[in-house]
């Protein structure tokens, strides 16, 4: 498959693909599971890395700007793309197995849209099974309740729908690139559209199933988190203001990282701002057992 978007053809993305190896991690001994796609960069001495979780439409590559920039500053950063899982519990069990396989005891999680929802559900899951693993959350354009999505009544049938239909369902939630005058936002949309074309029917169906089956986050189980940051944008994006206000209510003590613009994918279109907010989020852990970097804080 050929790609023609500006981001795919950019020197930065080329550098990422040339210098950051993609790992395929198989956790299913039967061979029926094609495995997690993982980029892991930065110092391996760091025991509490920052892990990125993609949206429905994304792949592990969508966070390449964060991986390049933050790893150059001494952070260990991982982007993980899951194989098809058909329930939240199954996904959480799979992610726990991935962390065990990588010998990672604790993490900071960045989740975008569905990735943010799953990050919260993993905090909930790991708390219930008495294996808390998450130090902090950074949620980008995310949500706490899947009942907001219009396809919830049809979710049990997604597994039989052809890929072309599923792609149209995902793309229907994208803002039209013509509504933006910002070339960086338009480029981010083009990049994500091309990524959707590379996803299999099982990838799309399983993600949409998890995204739309009724489920909500029990935020009372988030109390063990050391910090939460909520990032959103003020321009047009798939989740509207009522959903934004709902997540604010669920996390009244969270820090807010609000961007004037950025669309659905600010980690691509506003990467410098996102990277700065991530460093601010993680800085408090420098020099502690929870540090995501090998930086030694200046005590002078």
Order of helices and strands: HEEEHEHEHEHHHEHEHH
Query: How many H/I helices?
Result: 10
Compute the gyration radius: what is it? 18 Å
- Give the termini separation: 54 Å
Query: Could you say which overall geometry the principal axes of the C-alpha atoms support?
Result: globular
Strand content: 5-15%
Can you walk me through this structure?
This protein is an alpha/beta fold and 300 residues long. Helices cover 37% and strands 15% of the residues. It has helices spanning 11-19, 64-72, 88-101, 114-128, 163-171, 183-197, 201-212, 241-250, 266-269, 271-283, and strands spanning 22-25, 36-41, 50-53, 77-81, 107-112, 134-140, 227-233, 255-259. It has an eight-stranded mixed beta sheet with strand order 1-2-4-3-5-6-7-8, sandwiched between helices. Helix 2 (64-72) packs across helix 10. The longest helix has 15 residues, at 114-128. The radius of gyration is 18 Å and the shape is globular. The N and C termini lie far apart (54 Å).
């Amino acid at each position: 498959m050929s790609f023609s978007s500006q981001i795919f053809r950019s020197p930065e993305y080329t550098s990422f693909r040339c210098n950051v190896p993609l790992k395929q991690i198989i956790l299913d001994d039967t061979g029926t599971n094609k495995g997690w796609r993982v980029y892991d960069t930065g110092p391996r001495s760091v025991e509490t890395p920052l892990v990125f979780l993609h949206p429905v439409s994304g792949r592990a590559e969508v966070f390449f700007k964060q991986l390049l920039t933050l790893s150059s500053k001494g952070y260990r950063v991982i982007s993980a793309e899951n194989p098809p899982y058909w329930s939240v519990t199954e996904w959480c069990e799979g992610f726990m197995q991935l962390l065990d396989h990588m010998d990672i005891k604790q993490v900071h999680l960045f989740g975008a849209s569905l990735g943010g929802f799953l990050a919260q559900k993993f905090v909930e899951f790991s708390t219930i099974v008495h294996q808390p693993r998450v130090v902090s959350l950074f949620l980008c354009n995310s949500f706490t309740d899947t009942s907001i999505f219009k396809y919830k009544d049809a979710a049990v049938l997604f597994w039989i729908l052809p890929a072309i239909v599923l792609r149209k369902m995902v793309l229907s939630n994208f803002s039209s690139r013509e509504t933006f005058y910002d070339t960086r936002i338009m480029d981010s949309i083009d990049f994500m559209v091309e990524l959707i074309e590379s996803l299999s029917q099982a990838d799309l169906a399983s993600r949409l199933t998890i995204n739309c089956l009724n489920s909500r986050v029990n935020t009372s189980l988030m109390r063990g988190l050391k910090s939460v940051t909520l990032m959103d944008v003020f321009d047009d994006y798939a989740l509207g203001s009522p959903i934004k206000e709902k997540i604010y209510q669920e996390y009244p003590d969270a820090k807010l990282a609000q961007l004037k613009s950025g669309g659905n994918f600010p980690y691509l279109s506003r990467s410098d701002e996102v990277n700065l907010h991530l460093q601010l989020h993680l800085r408090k852990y420098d020099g502690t057992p929870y540090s995501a970097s090998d930086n030694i804080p200046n005590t002078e």
